[in-house]
Amino acid sequence: MQQSAMPDEEEGGGEASGNIVEASSLTERQKRCERKLEWIFRFALGIEDSNNGISNKELKEGKDEDRNGKEIDLKGMCTSSVDLWLLYIRKRSRDANRAAACTGGDSNNSVRERTVAAYETALSHASFVHNNHLLWRQYLSYVKSWGETLSETDGTATDHTLQQMQKQSLRSIYQRLVSYPMTGIDQLWNEYETFERKQSEQLAQALIGDLLPKYQHSKSVYLERN
Prior knowledge:
Elements: H1 2-5, H2 28-43, H3 56-61, H4 82-103, H5 107-126, H6 132-144, H7 146-150, H8 157-177, H9 185-199, H10 201-225
Helix pairs in contact: 4-5, 5-6, 6-8, 8-9, 9-10
């Protein structure tokens, strides 16, 4: 189902792809998978997106029923599933790419905004659950991928703004994730230290000093649990 609902799309949330399929060109089977995914997101994760292009009628058609014919309503009982959140992010990124391909304009900026919103929604529910490191690491990788766009630019004011946005986003992600016990917390902390020292050694000392107790507590909790 996941593969059918994600035609011609690369893995993970990212910038616009050259193989984005417009919603109008989807087969009926793919449309059914789209509705099923939206049903999962609404009832298993407890969220919905008014910009997904799926009507309430279509969502109702995608619902499941139990053996007595009653609709199954999970009401967000699967919010601890990192796999589901990663699928949610992937689909929202793909939806953003489709919308950008149809409307034109600053497509990269639009895709970034909607993809970041998807990551933030996921983290608001699953920042501390089992395997949370997969979510945090993918978020970091996505923001770091903005550098690929920067490497192709000519140094305009817009490019400088994107570079600053990238730095601020990376700092925010690192500073939040060190507060949560997770696999690979030591490596992530070392990455954060390296990141800050590249920006400013003086500022790095102050920021790292402030966050060190949170990191040490997270590491201690992780070691106790494992």
